[in-house]
Amino acid sequence: MEKILISIVGPTAIGKTSLSIKLANYFQTEILSADSRQFFKEMQIGTAAPTPSELATAKHHFIHHKSIEDHYSVGTFEKDALQVLDLLFKTHDTAIMVGGSGLYVDAVINGLDHFPEVDSSIRDGLNELYKNEGLEILQEKLKALDPESFNTIARDNPQRVIRALEVSIGSGLPYSSFLNKEKGTRPFKTISIGLTADRDVIYERINLRVDLMLQEGLLEEVKQLIDKKHLNALNTVGYKELFKYFEGEWPLDFAISEIKKNSRRFAKRQLTWFRKKEDILWFDYTTPIENIIETINLKK
């Protein structure tokens, strides 16, 4: 029987975790997280990671298995996830993957794009430029060298901007020219399920989630991480805004409003990314689980 990976995607706060657990229980299988911030054990509240009771309901992989001190790349995740799936498919016909980090989802389903080796001194120079002059000058360089990447990557993420720049500079070709080449096949079939809602509903759910995180102790979680704020893992919505509050740059009300605004922007980018994928089966977030299961079984 063909092995099936059910991939659940969609914007933040739409209900992906809940759906993944219901499907894992129905298919009697396990869940792989493809949320690149839920990997880190120090970031539990602000990443909306599954709760202890949710984790107890179905076996999860790649939740809080790394420290923010660790370097954990999408390439390493791809390798680790494929190893877990290989083992899981020895005893199960179906596995679940859930997460809103599009690059990590794509890495497992399709494989990563391959880039040329570039001199490490280029990255070192770009990191130094970022440290001394900020992100904007890097964004302008990327816009000049590779307008396509400038318009498509998460350009408020310094790591992504620096990566695109180092490939563009080191190879003499745009970073975007190496994307979407033909890759190897996977020994499993993927059925991709997308959850969505009207924009106003998504934004309302995001605002409520932020309020809930604060009730659950987000301020204290962020306070404990202030001395680590330089780490890339913490350049994340919900953390970077509250660092500014604790350092006296912003009042708390403004920091909270910025978390909500930046979360809404992130959700918009997620939807833009996933809606480019033609094979995703989209459902309103209120769709009964029975309807989703019926569609999955028809696609198997």
From TrEMBL:
Keyword Nucleotide-binding tagged: yes
Question: Example GO biological process term?
Answer: tRNA modification
Query: Where would one find the signal peptide in this protein?
Result: none
Q: Where does ATP bind?
A: 10-17
Q: Which GO terms describe its molecular function?
A: ATP binding; tRNA dimethylallyltransferase activity
Please give the start and end residues of each transmembrane region. Answer: none
Tell me which cofactor or cofactors this protein depends on: Mg(2+)
Annotated site (Interaction with substrate tRNA): 101, 123
Alphabetically list the UniProt keywords.
ATP-binding, Magnesium, Nucleotide-binding, Transferase, tRNA processing
This entry's Enzyme Commission designation comes to 2.5.1.75
Coiled-coil spans in chain = none
Annotated residues that bind substrate are located at 12-17
Family to which the UniProt record says this protein belongs? Belongs to the IPP transferase family.
Instruction: Say what the protein does.
Output: Catalyzes the transfer of a dimethylallyl group onto the adenine at position 37 in tRNAs that read codons beginning with uridine, leading to the formation of N6-(dimethylallyl)adenosine (i(6)A).
Q: What is this protein called?
A: tRNA dimethylallyltransferase
Q: Which organism is it from?
A: Bizionia arctica
Which gene name belongs to this protein? miaA
